Fold:
Amino acid sequence: MISRRKIIRIDTSRCTGCGLCVPDCPEGALQIIDGKARLISDLFCDGLGACIGTCPEDAISIEEREAEPYDEKRVMENIVKAGTNTIKAHLAHLKDHGETKYLREAVEYLRENKPDFPAHEFITGEHKHGVPHGCPGSQVISWDENKRSEPAAAAGAETGKRPSQLRQWPVQLMLVNPLASYLEAADLLIAADCVPFAYADFHRDFLKGKTLVVGCPKLDDAEHYREKLTNIFKTVSIKSVTVVNMEVPCCFGLRELVKGALKASGKKIPYCDITVSIKGGLKEE
Structure:
């Protein structure tokens, strides 16, 4: 039965066939065929986008279209053949995305067909993430600011070691997964690449309490960034957007592409922008 649902889309004009996305799809929905990544079956794609963050060309996105329903049983039949690490990666993937229904279906399949596998740990939350796959630089990580291991000076102190206010990884917009859990209900800070170098108190004044993405509107593909931000605004619930750019003319393009993405998304999200001077101060506008 065909229905409309979220499913990945591969832009073959961008895809180089590097294959980095394939290990990040434990469901087995992707293969390299004729030098390009291909979605081999709608049945195997859950539409959660684990493959997006590891594509260096940003050739993978999420779209909503008519597709065959995702079939967890069929997926598990493939995954069990691939071995223990693939099973763990798939279950962790479902758990991290809150796909309780599919997770329980997968665990039930394992209880019936692979009873020696400790599937119950993924239901109770006892399992440890960290099955290595893909590029470590684009692995999605988030952490609680109250659980930092490094010693830091008290908040607001002017001397001593200050704590980092970064709450997630990756931060480069090219690598950010539009479905990353840290984007949900986030106060999103979109900063030009040069801002943290020019503004000494970037962490304290801008980053604290926010989720960060960075990019360069001059050197990067601005139109692609507009499309990606539009996808983010449409897909997840962003609470607010703050743009911080440099005073140089080319950097104001960051504002325009963000505003364009907000308009294209159809969402009314609180927005503000800030300009930093090349000498590290704030510009009055």
